[in-house]
Amino acid sequence: MSSIVLGQTIWVVGLIVWFIIRYPHVRRARRTATLRREGTWRERLLLAIAFAGLFAIPAVSLATGRPRAFAYDPGYGCVVLGGALFALSLWLFRRSHKDLGRQWSAALEVRRDHQVVRNGVYRTIRHPMYASFWLWAAAQAFLLPNLMASLSGLVAVAILFFTRIGFEERMLIEAFGEDYRRYMQETKRIIPGIY
Ligand code: SAH
């Protein structure tokens, strides 16, 4: 198998595993009552950007080979590194869904009986699910043989992360006060001990 086909295959398999991990949580979230929704239109736009950068643009590029001017062969080294990053991303994605449990929602929301989660992967970082998105975008950049597909993921995750993070932390401070502030002092955002 060529490195190009191998990288594309790993990306497709990773994506399928991602949907399988997420599906039961989407179903449960539909049944969980919401107390507060934050910036509905901004949130919809951010989710659409993430969908475009991590799925739609790379999928179209993979299916058509376009834009041809941006096509290249990542080589086996990059593909192996990309596969390892995608595996790490999926592990973190699964763990953070399990630890967040019924507090999870795709957009910014506070649930009825919402509690601050600070165990499991939330012990050291506050945003492990967003960390898993960064890892996915990095994996995609190593796996796919087109520069546009590689960059679209990183740009989309950067927009989602840097736009949302301030609103999310402010919302949780408003909802939980000292409890969340103390949690913020004990943890970093996405890189343990650093940021
Ligand atoms: N930013 C987190 C969670 C993403 S899911 C991460 O990257 O892992 C988004 C929802 O999670 C938000 O609507 C917010 O209400 C909730 N949330 C985020 N951090 C939380 C925490 N520590 N405890 C409980 N809920 C949290």
The level-1 CATH class? Mainly Alpha
How much of the sequence lies in strands comes to under 5%
Poorly predicted parts: none
Largest sheet, strands/sense/barrel: 2 strands, antiparallel
**Helical stretch tally:** 6
Task: Report the order of strands and helices.
Answer: HEHHEHHH
Using the CA coordinates, give the radius of gyration: 18 Å
End-to-end Cα distance: 39 Å
Question: Which small-molecule ligands are present, each listed once?
Answer: S-adenosyl-L-homocysteine
| CATH topology grouping | Four Helix Bundle (Hemerythrin (Met), subunit A)
Quickly count the domains.
Answer: 1
Please bin the fraction of helical residues.
55-70%
- Could you say which structural class the secondary elements and strand pairing correspond to? mainly alpha
Strand order of the largest sheet: 1-2
Would you kindly provide a written description of the structure presented here, covering whatever features stand out?
With 195 residues, this protein is mainly alpha-helical. It has one domain (3-32, 47-104, 130-186): Four Helix Bundle (Hemerythrin (Met), subunit A) (Up-down Bundle). Helices cover 69% and strands 4% of the residues. The chain is built from six helices and two strands, in the order αβααβααα. The chain has a two-stranded antiparallel ribbon. The longest helix has 30 residues, at 147-176. The termini are far apart. The structure holds S-adenosyl-L-homocysteine. S-adenosyl-L-homocysteine binds at residues 96, 100, 103-105, 108-110, 116-117, 122, 126-130, 168, 172.
